[in-house]
Amino acid sequence: MIPLRKLFRKIFFALKIGRDPEGVKRNSRIAIDATARSEQNWRHNSDTRERSVRIPYADQPARTCRKGKGKALSESPPRSRATIVDVAAKAGVSIGTASKALNGRGQLRQQTRQRVLDAARELKFQPNALAVGLLAGRSFTVGLLTTDSIGRFSIPVLLGAEEALGAGQVSVLLCDTRGDAVREHHYVQTLLARRIDGVIVTGRRNDPRKPLADHLSIPVVYAMAPSTEDTDMSVVPDNAGGARLAIEHLVATGRTRIAHVTGPQHHLAATVRAEVSVQSLAEHGLPLAADRIHYGAWSEEWGRQAAHVVVRSDPRCDAIFCGSDQIARGVADSLREMGRRVPDEIALVGFDNWEVMAASCRPPLTTVDMNLTELGRIAATRLLDAIDGRPSPGVQERPCQLVIRESTGIGAN
Fold first, then answer.
1. Of 38, 259, 307, 372, whose CB count within 10 A is highest?
2. To the nearest whole number, what is the mean pLDDT of the chain?
3. Residue 126: its pLDDT value, please?
């Protein structure tokens, strides 16, 4: 095929010869040169067009680009993610068998199941989470609502819950309600819209709270602060048992004049720990030093003030049990300023085992640990059981643990 440009040049040359026979040689040379240049350009353009064509088919080995224009493309298309079809083919089983093996369902021989799992691992197969959720009727996500904006109590609970939920490949969505009922309602609706499988509710206090809402379609577990409904699932620390551990430890170290400094009287944790402290002392035939419970704020400042009150009221006081580590640290500061040595003259016990407070106290603080991480793990386990159709209503108390440090004269274990 002769290019159009070449054909036009030949016609023009023929017409020119007919009008000017004398210029045949000169025009012939011009026409030959022009024809050669035209042919060379056409071949170059054709070559370029051929090299710039993109090959759209995966079975063709390479893609090309214009010479000198940008970077060369890879010699082969990018490798796609492995699918369950690839896993089944590699393991030599049907797609249904591969699905059962990967999801732990069905009656399969162990050799077959292992062969499928090995194939999936070799192909780096990742199941489609959305497809798995649709098949199981679950989203494999749970919500965690907290009123503890500081995170002092909710973070350990969250870590324990995540440890238990992670084993079941369940993700956690954390929402801070800041103690606001309107914000809490908003988050509940948002979580329900995300089709979560369940909710764990926690906070910074042990006081019973109202349920999230009536007739929720998903299970709910309350950690730290129990629900007021007996039919709900709740997990709480054993405050009474923790207070008893503290008093028993002080009595065992030979202390006989034990005072108690704690938080606000309207907080359940403060009143329970105070009542058990008085009861435990009475069982040993011992009076409460300073003749009363010292209620105040959950703060170091209150601890500093209370230490002066206790020492003035009962100079023979040889131990102080505090309702929180923050209070205990404030007490320790004031005792040091007053020249009262801890633990030689006055032993000191806190509550919470807040590592930052307990370890930085001088001397390091003996304290009661509520095992919040374990509490979160138990809450998550009960939630998973409820999601699987095995709810366990009622309040479950988890034991506390005494962590002994230098403030009681025994030394760290």
1. 307
2. 82
3. 74
